[in-house]
């Protein structure tokens, strides 16, 4: 059986594992937003950045990509993803049904936000998000790079996220 991973943020442009197939997909019941303070990868404990996470919300659906893990690489991929995504336990690992745009429905490994975690910051106004993203920097580089890469890759696969597009323009203006 194929192991699928749902990518909605950095997994879009930096999966970090061998991908056998990539298909545009929709995860019902979740909304993508910059609702997690980043204290490792895109910020520090003293100056947190922001990263994308999925907030459970029955009124929304998140579009991203389904990534099929190469056969025989499932255990190594799971270990890698757990080390990468569960660094601070702000994410919860879930197996959720996603709808592939080619008509298939599969179960995928998805990392969603724990709204009870100290790094959770849902509902922050977009302007405040832009101010943080424009200045923050962490172990994986500047926060704006994460935003730009994610927005660009969504656009390249024909997906539009109005909040990310607005944030990209606003952060570029702030950094100019």
UniProtKB/TrEMBL annotation:
The keyword Transferase applies. Its EC number is 4.3.2.7. Pfam families: ChaC (PF04752). One of its GO terms (molecular function) is glutathione specific gamma-glutamylcyclotransferase activity. GO terms for biological process: glutathione catabolic process. Keywords: Lyase, Transferase. InterPro entries: ChaC (IPR006840), GGCT-like (IPR013024), GGCT-like_sf (IPR036568). It is an enzyme of class 4 (lyase). The keyword Transferase applies. GO terms for cellular component: cytoplasm. This is glutathione-specific gamma-glutamylcyclotransferase.
